[in-house]
Amino acid sequence: MAQRNPYYRYLDSKQAYYTSQHKPIFGGWLMACVFCRVVILRLVMLNVECSLTGVEIFLPFLLSLYEATSDNGSSSQQSNTAVSKTVRSSAMRYALLVGVFTVSAFASVSTSTPRSTYICPVTSYGSKLVPVSQFLGLFLDTGIIIGLSTVAQDGFESSRPKLLLGRLAFISAGALSIQAGLFILKNPEHMIWSFHLDSRIISDLLFATVFGSSFLASLVYLMSELRPSIPITVATCVSIYTYHFSTHTTEFWPSPSRSTVVLSSIAFLSMAGIVRLWREASRSQRSMSLNGTCSRFLVILFVFMSVLFLAKKSSLILHPSKLSKHPIDYLMSNAQHTSDQWRKQAATSQSLEQAVYEYQSRYGIPPPPNFDKWYEYATARGSLIIDDFEQINSDLLPFWAIEPAKIREMTAHMLERTWTDAGGLRIANGTSQLTPHVVPTHRWSLEGTSSIIKKFAQWLPDMDIAMNINDECRVAVPWRAMEDLKDRGTVARRQLNESKHFQPFSTNAHQLWPNTYMQAEPPYSPQTISEYFAEASIASSFTKYGVIGCPPKSPSLRTSWWNKGLFCADCTSPHALGPFLSNWTLSGSLCHQPDLKNLHGFHLSPSSFKPTTSLFPIFSQSKMPGFSDIVFPSPWNYVDKVTFDSSKSMAFSEKEKSVFWRGGTSEGYAAADNWEGMQRQRFVHLANYAQGSTKLNLLLPNNAQGTGYSYRSIPLSSVLSATNIDVSFVGGPVRCYDKECAAQAREFYFNTSTVDFQEHWKYKFLFDFDGAGFSGRFLPFLESSSLVFRAASFRQWFEERLTAWKDYVPVDTRLHDFWSLLAYFGGLGKNGEYAHEKEAERIAGQGREWAAKVLRKEDMEIYMFRLLLEWGRIVDDRRNELGFVLPPK
Ligand SMILES: *[C@@H]1O[C@H](CO)[C@@H](O)[C@H](O)[C@H]1NC(C)=O
Ligand SMILES: *[C@@H]1O[C@H](CO)[C@@H](O)[C@H](O)[C@H]1NC(C)=O
Ligand SMILES: *[C@@H]1O[C@H](CO)[C@@H](O)[C@H](O)[C@H]1NC(C)=O
Ligand SMILES: *[C@@H]1O[C@H](CO)[C@@H](O)[C@H](O)[C@H]1NC(C)=O
Ligand SMILES: *[C@@H]1O[C@H](CO)[C@@H](O)[C@H](O)[C@H]1NC(C)=O
Predict the structure, then answer these.
(1) Are strands 709-715 and 322-323 parallel, antiparallel or unpaired?
(2) Which among 173, 202, 226 is the end of a domain?
(3) Which of 413, 689, 779, 851 falls 20 to 30 Å from 880 in CA-CA distance?
(4) Which residues span the membrane (predicted)?
(5) Beta strands of 196-298 (E only): which ranges?
(6) Would you give the DSSP letter of residue 466?
(7) Which domain holds residue 54?
(8) How far is the CA of 551 from the centre of ligand 4 (A)?
(9) Who contacts 31 (Cβ-Cβ below 8 Å, separation ≥6)?
(10) What integer is the mean pLDDT of 775-780?
(11) Residues within 6 Å of ligand 4 by CB
(12) End of a domain among 198, 226, 254?
């Protein structure tokens, strides 16, 4: 028995019992364990969204248990039973304390770590294995550490520990390479990106390597002196401390973690007990070999850390979060105010003179020629918005930095090459027509746009425009280049201001435009690619395009959020109040949200994506913030592809209290299991696989006093019994490789009965998500007097006209706010206690009314008219003298 037990050394180091002839066999076992450990580690990492949080916290406990039992084993050989008894009882006391520490630390971490909504498939066999593998890994870790410490007993002067460490490193590397090799052999299509590491991953890897290996080396070194549980316990404690110390605990979210503070306090108290035991042991120089200086240092460190922790969390402990107002009430009243303010400044002008003056004072230049015609057009159609077209201004400003001839050349470049997925419109002689080489499947879209333009084409100068026929946006310009373009654009615009005699549009403008793409035969074959555009479909677009427009030092440029299963609190807090979205504009920015990389089809794997990093003039129906396409009103809504049929309308109170959603898996092209992160899939999964027993932390009115709100833990079933959920995919899986289609068909229910679009109006709560691009349903939803929940990452032409929380309810892309939103509007329990029906009805009504005023087809025409007047000036060679001036009185 004692021969198996190398821990004899701790009890009496003078009588080392360790015999060296067992070492070679033992070394072989150790290497095998390390090999298995690495294999398991990689399995877990591949399905990290299915892993349990904090399993490794149990390591100190397993180690101390092992030590306690082996102490017992060896002490039984001692003749002095009294000594043996004290040793045994102190070892058991020690193991018990470490146990308390471990359990409370684990509880504090797992209750305070919110999960993301990234899907861990319930039907996949592999993902169920992940927690099992994690525990297997934990036992292997225990074995490896015990083994290492055995070897380390030789002392670091001898070459054995170093040699063994070196071998283990080789074994781990070998295990990884074998797995990677097998993976590439099986999936050759992943070869290219597997070897392409971007700088963020390299810096993460370097950090992990340096940190990991120095940690391991110090650990082995320490274990030559100490029992292994000591450094491991200290390391665990420090990392849990850092975790709790640095997590973002606002008043509202992730949760007002009082229970976390209590649990972590228990953990730290038991740690105090552990340190005390070590100190006692070091005094008596028995049983545990922590020397005096070391333990004194630990005590001081412990006291210091505790004081710091209490200081930081004191407010949470002393003032339990009681709020006088619900965040949503606050956001709604704020939204009303913001909207009133915006509306006031958007329509200050009452006459053409005032409108010209207002334009001049906003942009520092005179309005474009024919501005009077536009003004007449807009006022005749009762436009409420005359002055605020900030979207047009910001979309077009950088193009002032580019020579008109160059802009025309770039337009021609796209229109000549059908490969670039651009369709052309020629505006000439007061009308608008399609260029000959528009792909038949997308003709309807260009014809729709053309029918908008025809309404006012007589006032437009001759020009050709290139329209994006894909749903996905196209132009991602790096930050520095964009800043430069904007600066030069501002300067170029100022030159216009210096002109004294303003002219109307050139009449010979059509001569300036090339005719190559107007010929019946295209100048280039459809296969001719453009060197300025890339074929980037079905690949992650986030790093290469999505965030290149972000300012340096943006979190999305510096970090990569690899743990898909973890909710990123720091990514939402800038634009959130509690779990709720508070700043719609900011929530679209990708720069502070590195985790979005895995949470949207467009970032994960766009179906048809041909982006450019140069500023090409391409008109798109929507764009992700950070992209530089020119946004125009979508013909989808203009030509009534989907509409709200008012004969099917219903009063809000008559509607059924249900969340209703139907749709396809069309957000992105599913490859390599990435459908698990797409927003539509996450939504359907979240809504349908909800476990009624899950505890939600909801903010509810205080019962007793009736004033203020506080958090309470409520089972999810309570939300489900108040609001019905009818959410499913329709048809069958689309846009996926065979393997992913099959996986989705297993995981989701696809409702094959057809639903008339007008069915939607029967339900109170309508959720609206992006597809491959913007959602075409949003406008009809808004008209329907149902409450619209909007989770759009693609932004359209009307964003500044609408106000989140006044006209619709904004939803975070992560969907972590889903249940809290339902609880607020739908209430809890059968009777819908705490429901806010009035508020829901008010937002639904306001959205409907406001849409009927500013999102009409007339408003789309007015927007497009103004956009093309501005664009007509930018592409005119004489743009520095073009402007509208009022006729002298
Ligand atoms: C410790 O050793 C004694 C005597 O050998 C044995 O009776 C006892 O069961 C052991 N305790 C544990 C926890 O292994
Ligand atoms: C443009 O000119 C007007 C009048 O000449 C002047 O008031 C305004 O400040 C100028 N704006 C810029 C941006 O130079
Ligand atoms: C516009 O009219 C002129 C003269 O009538 C003609 O030469 C030109 O081809 C027309 N352009 C288009 C695009 O129809
Ligand atoms: C929302 O974010 C935008 C962009 O960062 C910022 O300009 C604006 O002031 C914010 N609005 C509020 C109400 O905080
Ligand atoms: C499928 O959709 C129809 C129409 O909305 C609905 O009546 C039916 O209950 C759905 N089926 C299931 C199993 O949810």
Answers:
(1) antiparallel
(2) 226
(3) 413
(4) 94-112, 132-152, 164-185, 205-223, 230-247, 259-278, 290-311
(5) none
(6) E
(7) 6-226
(8) 17
(9) 167, 168, 171
(10) 94
(11) 583, 585-586
(12) 226
Q: How confident is the model at residue 269 (pLDDT cuts 50, 70, 90)?
A: confident
The token duo for 46 is: 């591949």
Q: CATH code at 805?
A: 3.40.50
- The pairing of beta strand 656-663 with beta strand 763-769: parallel
Q: How far apart are CA 551 and CA 555, in angstroms?
A: 10
Residue in 356, 360, 404 with CA at minimum distance from that of residue 497? 360
Rounded distance from Cα 15 to ligand 1 centre (Å): 21
> Does residue 270 contact residue 102 with C-beta atoms inside 8 Å?
no
pTM of the model: 0.89
Above 80 in pLDDT, residue 793?
A: yes
3-state SS assignment for residue 6: coil
pLDDT in tens, 799-844: 999 999 999 999 999 999 999 999 999 999 999 899 999 999 999 9
Give the atom of ligand 1 at the shortest distance from the alpha carbon of 75.
Answer: 2
Other CB atoms closer than 10 Å to residue 292's CB: what's the count?
11
Of 888, 883, 887, 881, which is closest to residue 360 (Cα–Cα)?
883
Please check whether residue 254 lies inside any domain of the structure: no
Count of helices and strands (H, E) across the chain: 30, 16
- Average pLDDT of 243-261? 65
The total number of structural domains in the chain stands at 2
**DSSP conformation class of 223:** H
Among all bound ligands, the one having the nearest atom to the CA of 89 is 1
The pLDDT value given to residue 16: 37
Q: What is the tens place of the pLDDT at every residue in 298-342?
A: 788 888 888 887 777 776 666 655 677 889 999 999 999 999 999
Which residue's C-alpha comes closest to atom 4 of ligand 1? 76
pLDDT tens digits, one per residue of 516-538: 888 887 777 777 889 999 999 99
Res. 85: pLDDT tops 80: no
Residue 689 falls inside a structural domain = yes
Structural tokens at position 515:
């005719």
Nearest CA to ligand 1 atom 8: 72
HEC readout, 582-638: CCHHHHHCCCCCHHHHHCCHHHHCCCCCCCECCCCCCEECCECECECCEECCCHHHH
Query: Ligand 1 pocket: which residues have CB below 6 Å?
Result: 69, 72, 76
pLDDT in tens, 546-557: 999 999 999 999
682 lies in some domain: yes
Per-residue tokens: 566:
């973890």
Ligand 5 in reach of 560 Cβ (< 6 A): no
Residue 777 DSSP one-character state: T
